[in-house]
Amino acid sequence: MEMLSFIQELFTKYGYSVLFFGLLLEFVALPFPGETTMAFAGFLSYTGRLDFFTLIVVAFAGTTAGMTLTYFVGLKAGMPFIQRYGKWFLFSPTKLEKTQKWFERYGSFLIFIGYFIPGVRHFTGYFAGIIALPFRKFALYAYSGAVFWVLIFLSIGKVFGPQWMGIFHLFETYALWIISGGAIIAALVIIYRYRKSIHARLFPSKAATRIQAQIKKPSKER
What we know:
Layout: H1 2-14, H2 17-27, H3 34-46, H4 52-85, H5 93-106, H6 109-113, H7 124-130, H8 135-160, H9 164-193, H10 195-202, H11 204-216
Helix pairs in contact: 1-3, 2-3, 2-4, 3-8, 4-7, 4-8, 8-9, 10-11
């Protein structure tokens, strides 16, 4: 509750800029409760004190600015810089090793889902730069993931109103499972919806044979 009071005081004094600079600093790996702040900001929009669409724009801008900054730091400075000065950004060797293992497991997709993994999202930008991931590919995952992350946590406060804290803690605990389950359901829906097109692409010879058979089939006499 003390933290919420502190966040509320920040919003009272500085307005939307709290969200932008707070999220930017979080992705530089400085302590800031980004998810809690977004959920609380969503609640403030529920009460009518803040505009929800403006919150989305500001939160997305702060998140992508922070991620992009860390990407270029990693790209230009490389691993030696992180190993030497990482402690100033709370970038310990343990966290670096953890991020590296997650990258080996999920590849570039980690940049997208990393937003929902505690202790990982702060360092995916650095690591993407360190391994010289092409910026276009980095931006695709980082910016789409930012939209998803921002919308979810702002919506928790906006949709659930006074009950946002209970939903927030539930989602925070099972975020990766919820996101994975949602992704699987979405994939199954897409596969079912476009099953014919997918089948034609996977088995082009069978599709061509079926079409030729229909063309050659003699028309019925009237």
